[in-house]
Amino acid sequence: MRFKSNLLSTISPSKVLLLSSALVLAACGGGSDSSNVGYVKFYNSSKNAPDIILTLDQDLESDDDDDADNFEVTFNGVAYTEALSVFEIDTNSYFYEMGWQDEDSSDRDDLEKVAEGQINVTTDTIQLLVLTDDITAPQVETYSIDVLDDDEDEDEDLFNLRVLNLHPDSVGVDFYMSESDETFNEATLAGQYNYKQLSDNQKFDQDEYIFYITKSGTQEVLFTSDDIDYAYPAQYVMIIRENTGSGTSPYAMDRMSNSSITEYLDTDSEAQFRAYNAIREHELIPNYTGTLDIYINGVDDEAEISALEIGSYSETKVQDKGDYSLDLLIPGTTERLLSNHLLSLAENTNKTVFFYLNEEDVDLDGDGNVDENNDGIVDEIEIMIKSLVVANSTRESIYDHQITMIDLVDSDDFNFVKFYFVRSDETIETALYSRSAVYTQPESIYLQNNTYQVFAIAEVDSSEVILSSFQLTLDEDSDELFLIVEADDDSPTGYRIEMIKQTEDE
Fold first, then answer.
1. Beta strands of 133-249 (E only): which ranges?
2. Contacting residues for 444 by C-beta, under 8 A, at least 6 apart
3. In sequence order, what are the beta bridge partners of 482?
4. 297 shares a domain with 236
5. Enclosing domain of residue 214
6. Same-domain status, 241 and 279
């Protein structure tokens, strides 16, 4: 479940409207007692857009610093498939602007504007703004949704449902629903919807339901949801959109209430995974020469991934959703490096499994001293092969990109590696973008398109040491990336950084 607050970044100037803290479509309904109050909500459906920032302004010509009667509000950025909570506002006409932060400042005047227009807020009505299509040629759709007074129902055992089709397939969709103990054969057609069409409101008994999606006029089910519980006399919008995950279903679905978004994926969707070999050669595993075979127990007798070399990324493997155990073997032998490590693959997910070697000092007599003869050398060590499973980003934003740093260096000299992303007018000391990666704990950052000099720095004996540095250029064609820190005896510093795409190109 994804929750998105509509905490405001700015409200200006002096005329501040009350936020509705209790207005939740998923709470007991009812319109406002005020005759001059309506509501605004925003949903981002442009899949290659960065976080989109919405501004509402009563008068574009007004100088806000001098006009106390003008109302202007700028909300926090909204990511793809996320939505603002419903915002309570006086009934009136308002101009809106949508933009994204392409500079350091998030001030309205510094945003890159992508859309603008005007809406009319009326009493007890939600104006739903939806950004659609490619961000280079975006469209804004506006929908008016009446706030229903559920007290007018004879009982409170019903809920309200609308369907909004935001999947661009020109054929449209058929939307079916059944009770949770039924199948598609018992499902009822709720409606047929074209692209960008919002249905009329329908009332249903509060219960658990399964939803199905087919292309209009067909009976081939292309999406089946899990059981979805509707336990309140509330208003919901079921949003049908493109599936940007790993499964073969073309559809995904968001249940939108006034304050939250819940994502639902095709329950039968497959998952994908890749593997990365970061296991260095070691004297305690003399037969290991830098390659390994990966087996999935219970699938078949063949290696799922064969002869994966150190520092290499495997091809993507498609697997049914489920929980699996992995074994690592030295190729051509029965010698296991690792046994029965869990790989949990939920539907529609895309993951990378990093395999690495962990070296630990052995305290032979338990006295806390691992160098009994005080010669500066640990008396005995043991090694363990471990796995780290990381979810790959499938974002398609063209203006910013996720960079995930993974420290696979188990060092006694430093506890973390700090990454600095330095632009042409910055130094390490003044760099705006930086993150610290702790051993085997992934850390992510979102970087706008630019050219960066990247420094990986560790603090050793109170001194900062550059482990690696390189140039990183991000543009509209760039991918989401992993930056993997590893030990490397051939490097002058003893360390190297591998830069790898999080997902394979289709």
1. 139-146, 158-165, 173-179, 188-193, 202-205, 208-215, 223-224, 228-229, 235-242
2. 393, 402, 403, 404, 405, 435
3. 404, 500
4. no
5. 152-264
6. no
Name the amino acid, one letter, at 169. D
Integer CA distances (angstroms), 260 to 42, 74, 150, 229, 347, in order: 12, 19, 20, 15, 22
**CATH number of the structural domain spanning residue 412:** 2.60.40.10
Residue 252's CATH number: 2.60.40
Last residue within a domain, chosen from 365, 392, 419: 392
Nearest residue to 197 (alpha-carbon basis) of 172, 219, 224: 172
Q: Give me the phi and psi of 390, to 5 degrees please.
A: -125, 135
Both 136 and 36 in a single domain? yes
- Quote the CA–CA distance of 404 and 316 in Å, as a whole number: 19
Strand partners, 457: 418, 466
The CATH number of residue 9's host domain is 2.60.40.1120
Given 348, 370, 392, the domain boundary residue is 392
pLDDT by position in tens, the chain (length 506): 443 334 444 443 333 332 332 333 333 344 445 579 999 999 999 999 999 999 999 987 766 555 566 889 999 999 999 999 999 999 999 999 999 999 898 889 899 999 999 999 999 999 999 999 999 999 999 999 999 876 655 567 899 999 999 999 889 999 999 999 999 999 999 999 999 999 999 999 999 999 999 999 999 999 999 999 999 889 999 999 999 999 999 999 999 998 899 999 999 999 999 999 999 999 899 999 999 999 998 777 899 999 999 999 999 999 999 999 999 999 999 999 999 999 999 999 999 999 999 887 655 656 666 555 666 565 567 889 999 999 999 999 999 999 999 999 988 889 999 999 999 999 999 999 999 999 999 999 999 999 999 999 999 988 999 999 999 999 999 999 999 999 998 899 899 999 999 998 76
- Name the DSSP letter for residue 126: E
